[in-house]
Amino acid sequence: MAVSINPSILSSDLANLGDEVKGIEDACDYLHVDVMDYQFVPNLTFGMPIVERLLEIVETPIDAHLMIENPERWAPQYAEAGCKSVTFHYEAAKDPGQVIAGIRTAGGLVGMGIKPGTRLETVEELLPHLDMLLVMTVEPGFSGQSFMADMLGKVKRAREIIGRDDLKLAIQVDGGVGAKTIEQCADAGADIFVAGHAVFRTENPAKACSDLRALAQSAHDKSWWCGG
Ligand code: DX5
Ligand code: ZN
Q1: Could you tell me the pTM of the whole model?
Q2: Is 29 a catalytic residue?
Q3: Is residue 3 within 8 Å of residue 182, measured between CB atoms?
Q4: Residue of the CA atom closest to atom 9 of ligand 1
Q5: What is the pLDDT of residue 227?
Q6: Which of 2, 43, 129, 212 has the largest CB neighbor count within 10 A?
Q7: Residue closest to 97 by CA, chosen among 72, 65, 69, 64
Q8: Is 204 within a domain?
Q9: If you average pLDDT over every residue of the chain, what do you get?
């Protein structure tokens, strides 16, 4: 199975966003767009106008990561606009089932994120309804933070449950993922990798994507869960 490299545009030069995304399009699988609302997290970033404009200028599918309150109300419109994958946070949802149904009805793949303090057991019964579980490897809100290696156990348990119950969802990791950490993530069970600083704060972001992909794919192919 092929791994997915999803650069987070939050670390790009936002004054040149169009050029930044065009520079990595051929080297990545999705563009990861961090939507923050000053409520769920202490930061404010992009909303629908930026997402809509990106959808016009790029071919690469968009992976919208919604760090916002009231996903019941806001999440479906990101799928309706054309984001291929829409991830909401479990902690922000009053009714996760409603959010899942809303995104799916609007035609999106459904992702659900959990913060570092949220136990996997709390969300286990929702896993069969998801296309992707996002295991945050930093506290959501900012790019450029240090990777929390103690989240790898959560990734591994999620992968074990997927194997045990023959589920189909993917596991995404987001936060502090780069050349020094991506192999551990793949080995633990992740197959979708978000990287902000490790892509855009380098001399050659497209090459950084390719290098990360090579590391992740080789660790994935050798991993316990992939039969390597
Ligand atoms: C953090 C965001 C991440 C962030 C990743 O809340 O969800 O997507 O931009 O940036 P790095 O890879 O620099 O930690
Ligand atoms: Zn993110």
Answers
A1: 0.98
A2: no
A3: no
A4: 143
A5: 72
A6: 212
A7: 72
A8: yes
A9: 98
Mark whether 34 is an active-site residue: yes
At 88, is the pLDDT very low, low, confident or very high (cuts 50, 70, 90)?
very high
User: Helices 205-222 & 17-24, crossing angle to 10 degrees?
Assistant: 40
- Ion ligand 2, residues whose Cβ is below 5 A away: 34, 65, 174
pLDDT tens string 36-84: 999 999 999 999 999 999 999 999 999 999 999 999 999 999 999 999 9
Nearest-angstrom CA–CA distance, 67 and 44: 10
Longest dimension (CA), the chain: 46
**Checking DSSP bridges between strand 109-114 and strand 132-136, what pairing results, if any?**
parallel
227 falls within a domain = no
Instruction: Tell me, rounded to whole angstroms, the distance of Cα 153 from its chain centroid.
Output: 18
Terminal-to-terminal C-alpha distance of the chain: 12
Closest CA to 138 of 1, 206, 215, 43: 43
3-state secondary structure of 190: coil
Percentage above 70 pLDDT, the chain: 100
What's the domain range around 195? 4-222
Tens of pLDDT, residue by residue over 91-117, are: 999 999 999 999 999 999 999 999 999
Q: How far is the CA of 7 from the centre of ligand 1 (A)?
A: 9
Q: Which atom of ligand 1 is nearest to the CA of 147?
A: 14
Number of domains in the chain: 1
User: Residue 143 domain-assigned?
Assistant: yes
Q: At 127, which CATH number?
A: 3.20.20.70
- Among 29, 34, 187, 211, the active-site one is 34
- DSSP structure class, residue 13: -
- Evaluate whether residue 228 is within a structural domain: no
